[in-house]
Amino acid sequence: MSATASRPAPSGTAGAGRFARPFLGAFLLAAAVDLAGLLAGLDTVHLVAKPLLMPLLAAYAAVRGGPRLLIAALLFGWGGDVFLLADNDLAFLLGMGSFAVGHVCYLTLFGRGRAPAALASGIAYVLVLAVFLVLIWSDLPAELRVPVAGYSLLLTAMAWRAGVLGRYAAAGGALFLLSDALIATGIAEWPRLPAPDFWVMLTYIAAQLLLALGVLRAGRAGRP
């Protein structure tokens, strides 16, 4: 056995992991309950479970020593989750604004001392965004077109930039983009998959979890 392999883990790291696991378990349980409620058509279950998700994930990240910008991004995501529980245009705009602030937090975090993101993936993201907006533009309500376009540009930048932290964060950024695209198709009244809210939440939950794990893994790798 090598000296590195035989070296015990720092007690602080082990302690943080022990205290963090219950929060991660509670997050996964809330996610499973929420998704099951959506599949079963139980709106009350969704109303109760959805607001629990991001605070639990933020608590997990905080106990793991995650950066403040990650905690802030998750909590602004929680704000967006709560606003979007109301079914009206004002709540939708407020929710989109809260998510947008979260994306700014992610972008700031991804830009700290990191290498430039891959140009090829950036071009691919821009092309996907441009094609999607062209196709959906006329079907969006007129008052939502500009806000949706601005938000989509910010989200696409976040998804692209997430790639600097590795595969977990890159996948999280892409899934976040997919989740919000599914919401946009619903607003445009395009044909949708069965149980559309289930697919929106599944991709969103996976996106936030992968982004958080990507940030935490990158932070751990950067420690001596």
UniProtKB/TrEMBL annotation:
The chain crosses the membrane at residues 20-40, 52-78, 90-110, 117-138, 144-161, 168-187, 199-219. It is a multi-pass membrane protein. GO terms for molecular function: hydrolase activity. The keyword Signal does not apply. GO terms for cellular component: membrane. The keyword Protein biosynthesis does not apply. Keywords: Membrane, Transmembrane, Transmembrane helix. Its main location: membrane. It comes from the Bacteria. It is found in: Membrane. PANTHER family: GH04784P. Belongs to the TMEM86 family. This is Lysoplasmalogenase.
